[in-house]
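Summary for the steering committee. The consortium agreed at its last meeting that each partner would contribute one worked example illustrating the joint modelling workflow. Our contribution is presented below. We chose a case with several input lines so that the handling of multiple components could be demonstrated. No manual editing was applied between input and output; the record is shown as generated.
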Amino acid sequence: MATQGFHPKVLLLLETGQTASWLMALLSGLAGAALIWPVAAALRRIPRGTMIDLAEAALGRWAGVATGLLFPAAIAFAGGMILRETSEMTLSAVFPHTPQTFVVTAMLIGAIYIAWGNGPALVRMGTLVLPTLLVALVLVLGGTVGWGELRYLTPLWGPGLPQLLAGLPGATAIHFPAVALGTLVADVDDRAGLVRWLPAVPLAGGVILAAIEGVLLMVFSFTISTGIPFPLHTAARLVLGGRFFERLEGVWVFIWGTATIVMLGTLLYSASQLFARAFRMPRRQTAVLPLATIIMTLAYFPPDQAQTIEWHLASTPALFYLVFVCPAALALIALFRLRRALE
Amino acid sequence: MRSRQIAWLCLLCLLLTGCWDRIEIEDQIYVVSLGLDKGETEHYRVTARMAVFASHETGILGGRAGGAPPSELLVVEADSVAQAVYVMNSSVSRRISMRHVRAILVGEALAREGLRDLLAELTRNPEIRATTSFHVARGSAFDVLRLAHWVGEFNPARVPEGILLVEKQLHMAPPTRLHHMINRTGARGIQPFASALAINRGVTGEAGPSGAEDSARAGEMNRVAGNPVEIAGTAIFRETALAGFLTVDETQALLALRGEMGKAYVTIPDPFRPEQTLMVRFQQENLPKYRATLTPAGPRVHVRLIFEGEVLTGMEDYRLVSVRHQVEDAARRHLDDQMRRVIAKLCEWRTDPVGFGLLFRNQFATWSDWDRYHWADQLGKLQVEVVSDMRVRRYGLTLGTAEQMKE
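What follows is the complete predicted structure of the assembly.
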């Protein structure tokens, strides 16, 4: 979730939430937690279950197959857009002369390597990256807040409460990696712990995004920030550490690139897990390379940088219904059926 | 397992094929200051001051051969900055890099036309950083870059940093960076401003001393020799177009209203000897307290400011409380006058660099409500009441003259 803050997804919050985008981030965290809660409750009752088992428990075998196709498709699309956006940022900001294919391939190789491993390895990788990522985030936000103007956060309600609520589905969809994390429960050692903390993921994401949105609004104002494709990177360029510590964004870009690779690896792992489970494949790894190829292909679909961001932002509300509403509904049905079966 | 590891290692070999984006320092020449004027044949006349490394000539780090200048100027006309750099490179044997531009200076004529296109281009350019200092030249930016001879400074890359430092410590001009310009242009409720630089014709010998006291606009300071370029006052913008210049005193008043005056040296009329002046170092420790109300007659702002001061000149016996009160009254009156004058001038120019508009934004529930209010149109009706308080705390290392002490 912390990685999402560096991607153009924050623009979605800025566009729909305007000066209240920080509030929108908090609301999206709450909405995400509320929708993921029944999923966590259902997963707790299905032994070694994933989203596929949950769908099958709710609506039968074919629901499982449909979920096994739709979820990986959604994840692959989002992964493709994230891959393209990150490569665009890398090319625009750091390596203008490097071929895009090289950046995309290098990142994807890293993601494949991560996705190839097992669940505990992935968790360990996340544990390693998260503190670095959070420290980088705190340093960037702390280093740029001095450029900010608190009054840029007003008018407090941004576009108005009805518009804020109307934009909430799109904003909540930003937390979709939290649902992807739900697929890890089949593999990790501390399954109960992961399931218990699953609803907290969007909440934490909401708080992190609220901090990012608040600082971006204060530093750039809402009107300017919506035109910046990578607002946090642009903000990072403002960090001044005295006369001898300038141009620190190279460090941030490296950290964000690494975090994005881990995130892509997690998404790839999740998609392969669901796909393999739905089609009863004996080895999950068999699905990794084909899915990675699809992600790479999708990454090259948008014609340019601006369209990549537009496609990604435009598709996000649909992701909300697919990744949050459907699993929540399936979970409620599964819970209902399990209770009836017990009775 | 072993074959898989070998396969991964083979893949890693891809990373060893070289780097497309490596930059060799000796293959580059760095622009440190960029001047932009209105062009005669193209949209811009772009002046670039390039840093010339000692090692360029001697091949070693150290002194330069023959006392050659540490920087050189290139001037071209072009439709954009990017095109200008491209054209400049036709006469340079190294790749011109904008990664170390430390100062951007815009000429008056171009600034009056409006900087929307220029700011958009500078924002887009990944080589130019928003932390670059931003100035407006009264007259031509080219003249300023050509004639500037910063006393005691050899390194051209250090000059913009030095200017920012002087601005921050003395407040003769506001320390402004490109980010401030971009940010204030887009944020509704505040307008951009930048520090002003100019050629002093009294120093170049083209005119006599200006006769102005220290409260003058850039180019009008009472100087007779030294660096012909001076930093003084503020360039005020309406949207992205230059509206006018403020004097040094007006600049300090503007910064005081924004709560950014810090410590500033102000010359006030001597209350005891009308023909003389007193120099007082003002200190604005507290942020101004604003009260903004929307009335049927228009927006109204009440500002309360608190200053402390140190008297640096004068011939009075400062042990007497009545003397202190008179100095405080004179200082307060002077500052209040300056602030009222600045506010009147800004309202006349229909611009709001203080950011009074931001005080009203929280009185609107939504952005569209605020947008419909059209803050820029309200500036003609804006009423500002300034109340300041001044306490003189110190008088330097003596409290009076030797005669007064004897008494």
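Chain A has 15 helices and no strands. Chain A touches chain B through 38 residues (CB under 8 Å).
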